[in-house]
Queue: 2 jobs
Job 1
Amino acid sequence: MSIQAKILLENGMEFVGKSFGFPKSTAGEVVFNTAMTGYPESLTDPSYKGQILVSTYPLIGNYGVPNHLYENGLPTTFESDCIQIAALVVSDYSFEHSHWNAEKSLAQWLEENQIPGIYGIDTRELTKVLRDSGCMLGKIVINDEDVAWYDPNKDNLVDQVSIKEKQVYGNGKNKIMLVDCGVKANIIRSLLKYDTTVIRVPWNYDFTHDEYDGLFISNGPGDPSLCEETIAHIKTAINGDKPIFGICLGSQLLGIASGATTYKLKYGHRSHNQPVQEFGTNKCYITSQNHGFAVDHSKLTNDWEPYFLNLNDGTCEGIKHKSKPIFATQFHPEANGGPTDTRFLFEKFINIVEQHKHNK
Amino acid sequence: MKNDIQKVIVLGSGALKIGEAGEFDYSGSQALKALREEGIETILINPNIATVQTSEGIADKIYFLPVTPEFVERVIQKEHPQGILLAFGGQTALNCGTALYDNGVFEKYGVQVLGTPVQAIKNTEDRDLFIQKLNEINVKTARSEAVESVEEAVKAVEKLGFPVIVRAAYALGGLGSGFCSNVEELKKLCETAFAYSSQVLVEESLKGWKEVEYEVVRDRYDNCITVCNMENFDPLGIHTGESIVVAPSQTLSNAEYHKLRELAIKIVRHIGIVGECNVQYALDPNSEDYRVIEVNARLSRSSALASKATGYPLAFVAAKLGLGYGLFELKNSVTKTTSAFFEPALDYIVCKIPRWDLGKFAGVSKEIGSSMKSVGEIMAIGRTFEEVIQKGLRMIGQGMHGFVANHDIAFDDLDHELQKPTDMRIFAINIALAKGYSVDKIHDLTKIDKWFLEKLKNIAAIQIKLSQYDTLQNVPVDLLREAKVRGFSDFQIARLVLKSSDNDMEDNIDAVRKFRKSHGIVPVVKQIDTLAAEYPAQTNYLYLTYSGETHDIAFQYDKKSVIVLGSGAYRIGSSVEFDWCGINALNTIKKEGYRSVMINYNPETVSTDYDSCDRLYFDELTLERVLDICDLEAPHGLVISTGGQIPNNLAMRLYNQNVPILGTSPVNIDRAEDRHKFSEMCDELGIDQPRWRELTSMDDIFEFVDEVGFPVLIRPSYVLSGAAMNVVSNKEEMEHFLTLATKVSKQHPVVVTQFIEQAKEIEIDAVAQNGEVLSYAISEHVEFAGVHSGDATMTFPPQKLYLETVRRIKKISRAIAKSLEISGPFNIQFLAKDNDIKVIECNLRASRSFPFVSKVLKTNFIEQATQVMLGGKVTKFDKSLFDLDYVGIKAPQFSFARLAKADPVLGVDMSSTGEVGCIGDNFYEAILKSMLSVGYTIPKQNIFLSTGPTKSKLELLEPCRLLVKKGYSLYGTKGTVEFLRDHGVEATTMHWPDEDLQPNVMDFIRQKHFDLVINVPKNHSKSELDNDYSIRRGAIDYNIPLLTNARLANAFITAFCNLSMDELEIKSWNEY
């Protein structure tokens, strides 16, 4: 125990701490998250692919990690099959954990997944640096074993986390075509709560000729403009009349497909406490978010309007088509982790799908 | 503004009491601020004169009147408000509001209840309605039966099975509630509970489950947020007010956290809260099963804590929502740019620890449980659990230095202590760890989550490591740093490494400080910004931690900071009055062009509100931490005289470290505090004091008592059990006290003071500049000396003092001020008998009565004192106490009802938990208003008297005549009735509690036959003492007003016999 470790940033800053988890130097993009619970969920969220995650909440590991269980081919306790982050940075790692459904400690889990962790870091200071200069490349260096810088944004991360082969879940009457750009398991679980069959296809799969009742475009990591093939398929779908629902990256892809543009936010939204207001109403919700890019809603074309806006910085939190059953949210209605205020959007989507089928 | 409301009444919570303390000063002040910002005229009804909310400039009009339906109705009648806020004055305001609603008063005068509708409040308060409401939305509550008799309770348990919890409906903070595991316990508890409420609830026991709370806010558009969740360190079974609490929750997974959050929002929507609400859960430690325990449809202790823990101003926002705003229309008042519709993200942990004062009460049970006994609380902020728990245990100020390295604490039965907790349980865990108990074993005994116990074990492990070294140089720097990260103070390190004794402690602390600073081990200052650094925020809400490398703020080193030391945890003898003093010092500092800086850690205060000052350090008031802050702030000076005894005790130590202390020199403070030095000075000045001696052997004591005669007051320096001070009137009592309760030795001397009976007690509160008195206020006690000044009823201006007495008091005070070169506030207490005046105490700091006299005289003594300390221009007043054509009375509030078994009798040690101050056109009007404010009621018919010694019997003779004349029926014990009959007053004889004869006084008490019980204690035989105790305790347990002082009883009776309720003037402060 007590191996020296440090985190280096591309601006030359260095924070010294100690290693836990797997003792291997790693590079990636450094991002922070201000959630106070839900580290097993965050660590397995494919949107974090290639990223070194800094937890602003200082006490991490308290309740250990649950058993990795599957039900109908889907993980029930995690958001994907494995840990997605490149490394974890915390202030005070809790070596002892306590929870009725914990199977192992966080350190053990990281070790098994060969993911390094570092503790004893002034994560508040690190967060302020990241906030002010935007996300930066960084590396965890353990025992002075240096590694090369790595910019995950240059890779097609979506391709890395997307499913390779089509997979079908459930056997309900509403067929949902789910484009997997790095989908969180809870999105599929949320859709399966209704009378649905979920057809999960790779990010670049051409679904435009397939049979389905509703289209879902998932969340995922990185810059949306790299998903050209997906955008092309969505363009075709928009011209059709089937209901479409997108989340996070899915919302950005839908935005680009509709003719709008996206941009990188100065401060990305990575927390469980993002306030959004439904455009043109008095309805507000607390949402779970994890994104660095956003749709520029001033550039929406005439057929489109904002669906939700962020109450803190006014950025676009969702878009919808003025006449067609198409909508998307920048936030995560499926939560896990985070608040469940907007879970009703899944019900709304399924209702629209059913209505649409009925009207035909 | 959202609607056409121009004038609003806000109800306060009255005197501080157990279960209802300073948190409501904070929430009320915030509400008033929110209303004023909207240009609404505000009317505050609150008799608590020591609060910040009853200060000038907070409400437009203040009524120092009881928060009862009768008085509030009369204020409504006079003021014609359009709206009223009920949620900011605790249960007192809520109960009063509900009664007014039920009586149709609001409807009659067209007053709109702002915020949560009364029906919704009732749905949370009435257990049946509550369960029914939650059943409608399939939310689980503890299985429970509402019963209206003891027989029904027994039947209910047949269904539920033991153990069960019994609680009275509509009661403050769990009053009259408890656990029972058999029929006998059940019957006993039900009897008490029925004294408070006609409805009693019998519930399934969930002992050992986790206790978790959420603070929820909802606006009229149905938008909801949960501002904070909190987890109790102590599992269910211990009232949340008695528990150590952390925020945010530490052992809940995402699924649990958000399941309970979602339920909380569902509940709040269904009930229809508009404003703030608290939802309490029990959570199964072995599954996601839960029960809703309670919903509080008002601001609460937890909401005040949540506000301080997160920086989210719950009360301020709740008041705005009451006016019709949506959350999204309000700004986050920390960032000022982001929305109030958000949920704070914390990047630190806070820990709340209750402060008990059970040692002050003779006979009280020290076990803690489902009913509240603590009198205050602290909040510690840090970035590890170890750091906050150790900080917190120092903050509660009960002589502890953290979790470890305390003086020997011993428990007769450690397992019992762990299982049946008292106020000392956390230290029992330390002993258990030291004895080698495993975490599993401690968990089995305490049911405290193992995560917390493992963290405590970490502290113990560092203790062991540190103890292995003898010099600082040998301690690995990493270990020293780790110890600081885990909350160890320099004191603890000195004791563990340097094995410091009391004699070299001060030097050794200094050595530790220098050593660690030479290795760069210093704390950093971090901000509380509500968003965990996600957005930039200019916040002045700060704490210090060792888990960090960089300060969040820059320091100017411009000598423009003036630091005010706060008063710490509320406790008996130091509470909201010092918050008022601190706030006024801060305001004056700001006005004089300095940067105002506050150090304090009490979440129930206004002074720990980040907009009360330019910089708030929510941190420890220890020498170490104050020096840490002084190193960074490089202040112009420190104000140590407005925070009560804690800062006062730091004066000399700070002075020795070359910290600039403003005002009276600490050298002179020491001359006033040190008994010997002070006496010497008095002798030189020719000022008389009661004779006293510091003695170290029994023989010396007897010799001294032979000289001065009984009674004497004994102050031991080492207390084994019970009260620290005692008056003894004969040899037998003295021997008993000195052998059983204290130690007398060379190391532990005892101070014996002549006790003067039937003497008046007089106080002066004053401000001096370079030894010249600028302002003063002289007040007299209604009771004779012997009742602690904090428990006494105080009259200002004095009504029954000779001019000669006043003159001599002024003269003595001037002489003392000159000799001690006082610059700032001070207070002197005197005894006056015949024409003899003796000084009994002198404090070179603001006293408890400063807000009272300042407000009655309408002259801000603290503002003036602070101006003096800053050395600038000083406002002079020409008002004197002879100019006032009205009278102010300060009356104490007792909380004996919450302290099972405690003897509700007054003595030389203070036992009141709060106070009120009311103004009247004459003495009787003021006394009646003030006594009605602390819960006394005018008796309807039957009064019981046992009037004690002859002097008290005589004192009460006239009042008894008055009572009979007014048609009251008098009852008394044998001696009292004989005495009354001898003097021609008719009364019915009751048998003593220990007599097996009818009619027996205890039966009549149990049947609540009496409307008032007067029991003046006697110092006689054991049986009579027990009998007196039974009567007093009976009165408290059956909720019958009790008076134990003949002088006060006389004043009260004379007042209500001569004045009817209608004759009490409804006048606001500014109308006097």
Job 2
Amino acid sequence: MSGTFGFRPTARATMLVDMSAQVTAAIVGPGNIGTDLLAKLQRSKVIDVRHMVGVVESDGLARAREAGVEASAGGVDWLLRQDPLPQLVFEATSAKAHQANAPRYAEAGIQAVDLTPAHLGPMVCPPVNLRDHLAAPNVSMITCGGQATIPMVHAVSRVTPVPYAEIIASIASRSAGPGTRANIDEFTHITGRAVAEVGGAAKGKAIIVLNPVEPPMIMRDTVFCMIGPDADHGGIVRSVHEMVAQVQEYVPGYTLRADPQFDEPRQDWGGNARVALFLEIKGNGDYLPEYAGNLDIMTAAAAQVGELMARAKLEARA
Amino acid sequence: MRPELIHDVRIIDTTLRDGSHAMAHQFTETQVRDTVRALDQAGVEVIEVTHGDGLGGSSFNYGFSHTDEMVLIAAAREEARNAKIAVLLVPGIGTVEDLKRARDAGADMVRVATHCTEADVSPQHFAAARELGMETAGFLMMAHKTSPENLAKQARIMVDAGCQAPYVTDSAGALLMDDGRARFEALVAEVGDEAWVGYHGHQNMSFGVANSVIGYEVGVRYIDGSLCALGAGSGNSPTEVLAAVFDRLGIETGVDVSGLLDAAEEVVRPYLPRWPKMDRNAIVQGWAGVYSSFLLHAERAGERYKVPAHEILRRCGELGYVGGQEDMIIDVAIQLAAEREKGHG
């Protein structure tokens, strides 16, 4: 399938890039997310992860050293003393830490990909709007639910107006860390906003459910889009399948459980109709378990953002 | 600090919240005003008014409200002379922002609800409630899904966060009498005199009222009911039955039994779309331990995809879906329809 709907970020233009050149990168935050991200970035041909940074000695730092990456518990102070400095930094710490670190990266001219809930830079979703922000000094990866559902909202909204989109993210309890749990409102606010602003709906709403069933359930997301009574169903179906294929380029376990489900217009929907999309997001199992598709889609999307930023840098240099 | 009890038991009526499920969230302002007036006159201490899935529940997933819940809360506040108005908040659906708006609309109390093993998503909401000067209670939903010991630990998390009354919330109407008793005792022992323990029952296997009595015997002091049982699944413990039973037992609730019987018969019954009953679908919910609010959604999906609702509900139970995952009902219906197609093809 070719890009009927426009931009394809992994543009074949990369053929022009000197593949022997690499962009240097660091990961700040050697926890589960940072470790999984490292595994993904080490498969990149254009990114060379040189540093893993923590603030205390940890298993994560030890794992990074085993993977051949220089790792330090000296924090961002240590990182900024390195020569040369990395060109890209991936932050997988906390919102508070990133708020403190972001101005320092900016000052040092390091482009930052933020996986924390700090949301300082523009919110990006690789196949939807990254092209607008490839040179931004700082980009936000939104939330796991956002990365999973915004491509689908966009797939519908580029075909027909979407006055309202609603997403429900169900994740395994084991994959919800203490940060998510203590600030669950942040998920609903940010994701709901991004579903509208990035996904292209006039209004957005997000719901998150933690499910403790054993064995753990694989991440599930449902996307409901309000559409007009005469919306082009065939066009929506094609657009959705095309977008699924695009997300699969960086999240192979991203699948539709069923074809898009169309519901007739209803009076209590203001005379509008609805399309429902049911997604399953199985992680790649790099470091995180497969059921934790919510965490995997964050690291996979961040790696994809890094990949495209790195290619842009190499192309600019060429 | 738990509030002083005025009577032996504090009856909390949830006709206008859990009943919202059975009404497909179509409550009108007039229905709410009439019901609140009747409950208030009959001496019910607390009346809960919210979308069935709590603040912010109006959605594709759970059903859009006919009338904005903030309008309904404000109307309830206006009608109630003595009763407190409570709202439900399910973290992940509703937010602190919604809570502030409910407070402005006149809500006096919030009940924060989480799945029985996920209480640690609630502290930010309890903290906000206390800051807003609201009374608090905590719902540990689907309480049959975890052991009494673990349920008590989860209650502790809520109490430490500012919850004045953690609840054994039998969302599926699945607790048999011994299951209920063990959980009541565990929570009462855990919270001591720091908080009251509550019980929220569903009638799917007809234990709502019986468990309420057992609860009282072992120290439960907040008890939920709905007029005409109006609630999810086969409904809640009927408030009017609770009042009559506690009266017979000589347990003081402060509620006028005749007044409540009139309220049920003359105010609520005329607007019932159907009297919640123990039919096949609802019994399957209690039997298989399925979230009661799934009932109408399963019936709708069953109709749309031509599969029996009770099969959908059973599958939801097998897959361990929890409150809030109403979207999975459609997914299950699609899968069941596909399986049938294959079987016949």
